Structure formats: C-alpha cells, structure tokens
C-alpha cells in the first residue's frame, strides 16, 4: 500500500492532474482518475486480499486530495496531506495484517537498546548543538566579513546540518571515499561562489573543516560504542 501510494502520488501523477485539481477541485476528472488509480494499485500490490483496501483507499484518497485542492501549495499542507494518506495506510495495515504489527515488547527492546540511544544522541548533537559550537568557534572570523555577504537566511545552517549527518552515516557504514567526494564537491561549489572574496573563502573553509572533523569524530565514537 505504501509503494502504491508513492508510485501513484509522485511518479504516475502528471503536473496537469495536480493543476486541474487545484483549479477545478471536485469538478476535475483527474481527481477521480488519480484516486481510482491509487486504490487499484494498492489492491493490486496487496494481491486483492481484501476489497476493504480498494474501497477505503479510494474514498480516503479522494477526500484528502479534494481537501488539499482548496489549500495553498505550501510545505505544511504538503506534509499534512502525506500524513493523512500514511495514517490511512497504517490503519488499514493494522486492520488487515495484524500479525505484522510490532508488539510493545519489540518496540521497547529497540528503544531500550544501546545502539538506539548512541545513534539518537549522535544525530541530535550533530544537528543544532554542534552547529552552535561551530558558530562560536568561527565567530571571530565571521565578524570580519561584511554582513551583506550572507544570503538566503539560514541556508548555511541547514547545509552544515545535512553535511554532518551525511558524513556521520558514511562513517558508520565505512564509506570514507564518499566523504572525500562530498567534501570536494561542496568545496568546488562554495569556492566558485567566493573566488572574489578571500576572507569569506577562508571562513567557509574553516567552518567546513571543523564541521567535517566533528562529524567524523562522532561517527568513529559511535562505531566504537556499537562494537
């Protein structure tokens, strides 16, 4: 059911269908075609094990997409739309395939395990806390750069968070070569933007090296703890 949703909601739904639904709402023929296609795919992928799947997915997908057609195309409504679809799929899965539902003991065994908390703490630290730390370490150089040099609001912060998390995953899975590729690609892009601003180039390089070193160190510590 999840595969059917991802396939029909993103791969097999042309932009024309979305625009028609947004413009004409319940009068759009593509709204009905899309809901029917999603329901059929969900029933097909579950082997037509229950007609409840076809009926529930058809009605729920139609109503959710109809509701979304009256809302602005913002990120919050996108996530709300996807959450509602996934909630229906989860409820159907619990109803039709109860044996697949993890027991409370299984969930607790995962939550109470050492690897779970090591990875959780690492991810938390590599997001905001390490970003604040890196910001403080590089503040004396940042203060020497004119403020107009900084653009796109918090883009740099999110680039740093994603960079550290990606490097952390690569370290845990021993993909060190990919770290070099990622760092080189970022350096090329950033240096091309700052080639006429030596101060900013040096600042970006310092921040990048500290960020990469932090992610690698945390990754190695987690790997040691998982052994």
Can you offer a commentary on this structure?
The chain is an all-alpha fold. The protein is 79% helix and 0% strand. It has 11 helices and no strands. 19% of the residues are buried.
SSE topology sketch:
Elements: H1 2-11, H2 15-24, H3 29-45, H4 51-69, H5 75-96, H6 104-111, H7 114-137, H8 139-142, H9 155-172, H10 176-194, H11 198-226
Helix pairs in contact: 1-3, 2-3, 2-4, 3-4, 4-5, 7-9, 7-11, 9-10, 9-11, 10-11
Q: Poorly predicted ranges (pLDDT <50, ≥5 residues)?
A: none
Order of helices and strands: HHHHHHHHHHH
Computed over alpha carbons, the radius of gyration is 24 Å
Task: Give the beta-strand count.
Answer: 0
Count of helix runs? 11
Estimated helix fraction: over 70%
Amount of beta strand? under 5%
What distance separates the N and C termini?
37 Å
Biggest sheet character? none
Compute the average pLDDT.
85
Q: What general outline do the C-alpha atoms trace?
A: extended
Structural class: mainly alpha
Question: Could you name the key traits of this structure?
Answer:
single chain; 227 residues; mainly alpha; 11 helices; 0% strand
